[in-house]
Amino acid sequence: MRLQNLSTLLFLCVFTALALGRANGKASSSQNGTGDSKATDMTPLQMHASFFDRNKDGMVTLKETYQGMRAIGCSVPVSAAGSLFINGFLSPKTRPPGKSASASLPIYIENINKGKHGSDTDSYDSQGRFVPEKFEQIFIKYAKTNPNALTSKELDDMLKGNKDPGDTKGPIAAQGEWKLLYDLAKDKDGFLQKDTIRGVYDGSLFYKLEQARSSSKIKQS
């Protein structure tokens, strides 16, 4: 999910099925892979965005979005363009009332639910909580080849099916998010697995991608 859900997200946003399945949408620090006790007070959408908050100050700056995207394996051009798009879109939407604009285009994690876009799966509700029923509908409707995964074509079908009439911005964000997720996280057979997608919704996939990339660098050195 590139753009908005990688930090909405682009976000972007991971294998904690137990946390994501809870009706109240909460998760423990041992499940999200961050080790941060603050995560117990976060919704899954906030946890998703928190990966990009590299210094854990409650905000995601333009630089931090870039660093986060590089950490999960995005190229320099994609990270540069993605960070401008994400922060340019979400910073004004999440900025608290009375707060002045900043050149660093910070995204305020406490208000990340205000940046939720249309034409998506609705697996987050309006407060940023995970909705298991909506998530399961993705696979009931579109997973025709493998009931627990999506192919590239099935992903395209889902994006078309989720498009809201009259919505021009939402489909662009959704397309970017899901295509980036597919490129980063598909398996060797070209399937985007259900567990992988589920992990996006609390950000734990991002930590796994970062760890895998770090391990790969160590092996190559």
UniProtKB/TrEMBL annotation:
Species per Swiss-Prot/TrEMBL record: Rhynchospora pubera
Signal peptide extent: 1-21
Residue ranges of domain EF-hand in the record: 52-75
The keyword Signal is assigned to this record: yes
Statement: the UniProt record of this protein carries the keyword Signal: yes
GO molecular function, one term: calcium ion binding
Domain of life: Eukaryota
Keyword terms, alphabetized: Signal
Record-given protein name: Caleosin
PANTHER family on file: INACTIVE PEROXYGENASE-LIKE PROTEIN-RELATED, PEROXYGENASE 3-RELATED
PROSITE patterns in UniProt: EF_HAND_2 (PS50222)
Protein family (similarity comment): Belongs to the caleosin family.
